[in-house]
Design brief:
With 318 residues, this protein is of the alpha+beta class. It is 39% helix and 20% strand.
Length: 318
Amino acid sequence: MAATVSFPVVNMEKLETEEKATAMEIIRDACENWGFFELLNHGISHELMDEVERLTKEHYASFREAKFQEFAARTLEAGDKGADVKDVDWESTFFVRHLPASNLADLPDVDDHYRQVMKQFASEIQKLSEKLLDLLCENLGLEPGYLKSAFAGSNGPTFGTKVSAYPPCPRPDLVDGLRAHTDAGGIILLFQDDQVSGLQLLKDGEWVDVPPIRHAIVVNIGDQLEVITNGRYKSVMHRVLTRPDGNRMSIASFYNPGADAVIFPAPALVGGAADEEERAEATYPRFVFEDYMNLYVRHKFEAKEPRFEAMKSAIATA
């Protein structure tokens, strides 16, 4: 049973008014104590979002549903025979890469109109991601542009979208939609179904629902922002439950560091040491993002702390 807690919601229009301080405080508290928040009036048109949703659901029905049903039948049969299917995710996904180079033109079964709409949506999400990074800099007392620069590497950030469907599951007790994990990257912006819930985060030992809100964008903090903020912001475990009814749509865009970006706590957020970077490394490691990702793909559904420790050990033995 999920806990009932008031979920942090930010009306971005208030950032342009005398209520800015209140909105910034919601963002600060959300980043430090929740790892998640939702945005309203974020500047992405409702018409574009509606078209993205319509085309995404049509694409699933036309090109992905039959294949998923084959997977579902195999999984349920295995589970009914006593096999452990807890290491399986009840989801149908495809990935769109935007930066540093797009693969939109190479995606099979995606028509030109859907490509153009996804390209436009990605452009809007990228702008919103970068605006949020600037707001986080302001909240943290970092110089403007610090986080975007920290993500840049030699070729700019990596940016991509995971398009997922979580179809109805007749045995929600048997398998999760997506197993609990933290996100490896920087900042994640999610356009989720407003009719079918299922996304939950872990807060104070309780699973809390991320409420579906029409035309909202859900934001969550990735592992890299936890490192750069020296633990002030936290990435948190989250999961997607299966449901016996409803096909949940999820479009998650990941604004991440470039592969060769060197990630370490911002010196301005580490005080009291003669060598601030040295002290920072004692709290969180300094590492190349690609090295972290190589570790993450093997340990995604495990606690993040051993990953940080492993990166420290790798540095110590290098």
